[in-house]
Amino acid sequence: MKKSISIILLLFAFSFLKAQVSITSQDMPSGGDTLRYSEANITQDILSKYQNTGSNYIWDFSDLEPTSQGIYEYKNAMQTPYGFYFFGSYGLKVSDSIGMGSYSIKNIYNFFKKTTSSFEANGMGLTFSGLPVPAYYQDNDEIYKFPLTYNRYDSTTFRFVTTLSGMLEYSRTGYRVNVVDGEGKITTPYGTFDCIRVKTYIYEIDSIGINTFKFGFPNHQMEYKWLAKGIKIPVLEIKGNVTMGNFTPNTLRYRDQYRKIYSPFAPVASFDADKTNVNTGETVTFFNNTTSITPATYLWKITPYNFIYTNYTDSTSEEPQVIFTKAGTYSVRLTASNNFGEDDTLRTDYITVTGGNPFVTKAWFIYDKENPTTGDDVYFTDKSTTTGSTTYLWEINPQTVTFRFTTNKNSRNPIIKFNSAGKYDVKLTVTTPYGSHDTTRSITVALSDIQEAGQVFYHVYPNPLNAGKNLLNIEFSEGGEETILALCDALGKIVCTGKSEAGNSLYSMETPELQAGIYFLKFMTGEKNHILKILVR
User: Fold this and answer.
1) Of 121, 200, 371, 440, whose CB neighbour count within 10 A is largest?
2) CA 345 to CA 271: how far, in whole Å?
């Protein structure tokens, strides 16, 4: 009998020890953790029970109703603006700005590290006048000392001072007291957990100023936190300010999963279409009937994705217009969002589309010079019939061409110089979501100088000329004949003349003052006459 009683007592003691919760550094957040929480209103029911505590206590907060959600995003230092200063630590953004006017600091991160004995804040990252400023703790803020178990008490201090600019300083000093005043089980909408409760009192003063002329912002806080193994942040925390010894809770947060938050101020999404039975190629207009007390944003999702937005609308337009490109039934979802939340509505198989593909893809192009010569810049213009996004491919045979002025074979309207005389086949292929088509046109390119059977008789340069007096050079092929030259204006009036003797390979002709315009250089060799256009600019 004594032996049986001893075994029972031993089992009871073992089960009691097993139920004790001990929080260690492994139960704290780490760099890279993203931990979602919900916030809820502090109701009279909450006020009546949050302070109750004891050993093996049962806290029931299962009826919490979330009003908003957020995420604690613990970033490795190198993912913050202050990585160089806090290498090896990890940060959590705690505020966008504190202070006011010229004494304000922004983009505030707390940085943390953890050891087997403590979880502590070891610095802050601040941005002042656009520059990142590190604030190192001279006395680290030990948020928890481990292990945290029922009835543990500890008190720690913290302090840091940093120079923001010149003689301007920012400092924080204070102390915190932790008391583990309860253990048992807690239930929230996230689940039921074995836990301890930690009651924390924090007294701190943030100061900013020059030397002894500083402005202090005292901050007295009280926190109630229920901690459980592996949850990383409090299962539940209630905190607020202490004024003249009186605690006023103002924030309730609890670990949670994603939940769709319904707010009485959130929009109510609703829509209709001007027609629901259409043929391919018809335009459907969606009318937005959403109600929202503040300006809302919209996102439309239509499935399957056989359609295009038209008339400068898109998936974020208030009332988009859509052309369906394939027969079938389509479901439409509208999501409306404002500062207070979002709502969506889905109309399944809402649009019925019949018919085939009405969108014809047909390639065609024109060019500006019907009889180009080598060296000319020929401007090609796309005249294709397409719908939706279009890609272009220009293929030229033979390939003795140069694409000019940053255009290329995929440009819609390329500029091309033909480098050799002859016949060229120019092929344009256009591709859209509804198919491809190509067309080929032939272009005959003549030589730019006066040539016959591949032999250059005359080569004139420079051409074009600049307005004013010029020296016009004419190169002759080897064994050139006697040639009379005459430069005429556009009306045929002779401006100047010259004569190149037989056997000359180069003749230079001085011109008088020339005005901008088109001139013609006439070559008279024996019984042959040739004319070359000269441009003056």
Assistant:
1) 121
2) 8
